[in-house]
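Field reference: sequence -> structure
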Amino acid sequence: MATCASFYGITLSSSSSTFKNLLSSHYPNKIQVNPSSFSVLPSHLSKTSVFSRRRHNLVTASTPTTLESPPKSSFRDKPPKDINVLVVGSTGYIGNFVVKELVNRGFNVIAVCREKSGIRGKNSKEETLSKLNGANVCFSDVTKLDSLQQSLQNLGVSIDVVVSCLASRSGGVKDSWKIDYEATKNSLLAGRTFGAKHFVLLSAICVQKPLLEFQRAKLKFEAELIKEAEEDDDFSYSIVRPTAFFKSLGGQVELVKDGKPYVMFGDGKLCACKPISEPDLASFIADCVLSTDKINQTLPIGGPGKALTPLEQGEMLFKLVGKKPNFIKVPIEIMDFAIGVLDFLVKIFPSLEDAAEFGKIGRYYAAESMLVYDPETKEYKADETPSYGKDTLEDFFKRVLEEGMAGQELGEQTIF
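Structure field:
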């Protein structure tokens, strides 16, 4: 049965029963939106399609006649310049690279962002527009479904593909569910309302072994996204699960350069990863927009080269700076003790909930590998973790040693 939503006289429909269930199960806050606060897209963007069902008169024939349905058209049949791609999380660290990559490939990119974007909202509206040069910027709030739908309605265009780069900045319990689940779900609902047939989700490889709230929130949305595609043959998804980002491994580069020791947990071999650069990850995500071999797939992805342990990363760094390796090895049990104390205190002081979660996040990244995980053997598989791109961690370290970490700030994710 078709589901219809009417906005200012324009009737849009979706044949997905799952979409109807998703929409009816969501209870957005009602807010007033000022239409003048949103940008207007150029006239070359394809206009919003109006979908309808009509009753046709049947013609009786004396002999049976086989009627063939015309082949279904797909946005993948169109050139990039005629494909409208909605990007949410566009001012986030990965999102900004994704917007640039899609623009460079010639897509019509609609970048959704807040007027005060960036870490702790430090970027002004003008700075955001400059940062997203080449994209059509739509200022809205993805945490409020009404606001997001109204913003897209004001644009007056259809959506072919949604790319979500949303992620909780802090990893706190409430923020994880607000962003990694609710806001991402809003993006799916809004995109489907305006015709989206494909959804590219930036997730994380660590959801394979969910021990943290942001992992559980991501998995809940992944499950609903997959169910939507299972119940609607005209809709598809690509779930991208990257390993570690370069910037998350660069926090000690300048310290080592200044003669400080390299800090690691245990013997430095507790975990490993195949880090991927931000431009390479953005390129892989952009591939998912049109590549048919990535349709309805969950795609773990790492960078080129072998998996590296913290010990190997430290040795590489000392070699680049020409210094003798100097390591401080911290027993992982220290973190276990701290987490135990915080978990106890949370029962008395609920306001410490996020502090306890941050401790668990730190413990997770100190001991768990960012590689493909086999739940049966409970082992991480470096050789089964796909590689993509050409940028190496060594090249990244060299660049940071020369130029510093400007533009690579971790902000609220420093705990990770």
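Note: The first strand starts at residue 3 and ends at 7.
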